[in-house]
Batch of 2 targets.
Target 1
Amino acid sequence: MLSLLIAVILLLFSLYLFSSFVKPAFVEVRGLREEAAGSSGYLEAQQEARTAIDKLYNDFKNAANIEGLLAASLPSGADVPGAVNQTQALARLAGLDVRSVMVTVRATEDGTTKTTFTKKVGSMEISLKAAGGYESAKRFLSLLESNITIMDVTSLKVATGALGGAAVYDFVINTYYQE
């Protein structure tokens, strides 16, 4: 009977020790693990932000010639064949069937400031008639928007095709050049 009583006392003493020392240590370890997981997520977010900033910096640094980029967006001289070719290529890439193209070259305008970067700027109006679906026309507008050469769509007319065929789009696009 005495050995059974000692066993129960030892069991109660071990439960007391567990609840007093071991269980709080487990709670503390769980809290530290949660804190480490939160810090790890924060660290990953900071590393992703740093990587994005480094990429932006390298892109800007590697853009070796800003004047070359400006020359690509505002080409020198009225390059009518180049502008027509570029517009037709974008339309075909978007999936439109080009029916006709007409170009009107406008007179140049003087720059308003007297810096060395300002030159006379002229414009060309390109009237493009093309047939295709809505998604193709939408893609064409997206390609014009992201094109390096500055192009503005000033007018867009849509007509239904004969016998329910593809829609016919009349685009009026302005593009610019410098002299």
Target 2
Amino acid sequence: MMKPAGKRALAVGFLAAFLTAGAFAQVKSGSCWPSYRGDPALTGSTPVTLKPPFRLLWTFSTGDAVKSSAVICGGLVCIGSDDGFLYALDQTGKLKWKFNAATSIEAPPLIVAKTVIAGSLEGILFCLDAQSGALRWKYATDGQISGSANFIALTSRTSVMVGSYDYNLHCLDAATGKLIWKYESGNYINGAPAVGGQVVLFGGCDGFLHLVNTTTGKAEKKIEVGTYIPASACILDGRAWLGNYDGEFFCIDLRSEKILWKTSGGGPFLSSPAVSGSRVVTASQDRNIWCFEAATGKALWKFKTLGKADASPVIAGKHVVAASGDGRLYVLDIVTGKKVWEYEIGSAIVSTPAVTADLIVVGAQDGKIYCFGPLPHPSP
């Protein structure tokens, strides 16, 4: 995609600001996992040190399957259910409030600026007060919302962005829910947008990776990846990693717009990758959890589960937390891929785990939310 020299120079300068190390502000902490992948860049990683084995601390039953993923922050555990409710629990599993969205909530919620924001399959994005669950605003798109919202905090305001099956990425004022701009892609948008600096990055069912200016809503770049992208990309240090439905997994240099490497032969990637240091980890419908060398694409290990692995893995320090359609939650060694711990829930899991220093929370198709924590220290 060639651009006139003047516009090209502006785009290069714009992307340089986006790709600097400081552009990827980490909002997660040891006690906070506030969004689907933990941070605006969707890295799916946290530096917390896990200490397996774990014990089941509590469960909470909703009225239908849980496909949404949990977020944890400010003492709240928030997650949606196919029963049409968004639930807020305290960290002991006690219900604080629930909000009736009237239709299934498969999208993971987002906790930002003392609010909880989540979209429904009816295509409505709800913004609720985090403490009371009271509705602050709602915004209707023209298609279902399957992916999480994300945010960017600018000097003048905080903006929230979400993709929809109406082909558009919608950017709203986080305080009011008023539309700032919308960007039209060529097909459905399933995943969450990744945010860094002044650029939002997302893949769509049109087979393109879109880079959009968060201020203007105009496209900066469009990179073709063959077929549709059912999940989210993650970005770090000027590179993006993502998988497509044909079983290809990509690393793309965002400065040069070049595909640095790609793998093939895997199953469809409905999982979003996680990246930390020199490793990128993802999961596939071929039932494997894959770990690649981030720079080269060399397969470092794969771990075979007993079902389709659609839940997105999380890198937590020296471990990988992953769930599978086989109904198990796994903790793996990130260096070797060896299983360190597992728990058999017994019901398929497509929900992505939320991970903090003290809690691992995941939903399952049996309609329950499961919370795990470390074993208690023995008395001296």
